[in-house]
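During the no-cost extension, the postdoctoral fellow (Dr. R.K.) reprocessed legacy sequence entries with the updated structure-token encoder. One reprocessed record is reproduced below for audit purposes.
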Amino acid sequence: MWSALTGGRSAVTCWFCHERTRLPRSAADADTKNDWHCSSCGNRNAFDAHGNLVDAWPEMYRETPLASRSRPAAHGELGAGAAFCPSCQRNQELVCQMLAAYLPDEDDPDYQSRFAQADEYARSLKRRYPLVCRKCQVRVDERLQQQAQWMYRRELGSALRRSENARSQPAHVLPSLRRRRA
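Re-encoded structure tokens follow.
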């Protein structure tokens, strides 16, 4: 009966932003109750068989980046929505790859000394290969400002809805509190 009223769609709550969402009703859709993308915040909500959030994906541990699917942008040219120029992207990939390859296995005799020097190594890489140029830093700052404004408007709207809901509901006052003592 209930599935007939909701159109057979499952209601789920995002683990990250706590917004309720109804999943598509088609079983052929990629989204399921245990693995779906939140339309509000864009995060992937994936849960294992025990209902625990899956927060590690094989892609996170890939040592080589995926091949680019599109033609690389010309020097200084940015793709739509890109915050970083090709030079900054190359530097970021290079630093990530070098940091990923820096530490040996834990049973390696050099592990402790390398681990102790890891922060200094990361700083030296970032000096050698700057992660963000001045032009990109301006774009990043603008994008962060836009996102902060969006989050502020969203939170303000949410607070307004909560306030309106609280005012529209009758106050719950216990009868014993209304009585006056004689």
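The mean pLDDT is 78. Residues 82-160 form one domain. The remaining legacy entries will be reprocessed before the final report is submitted.
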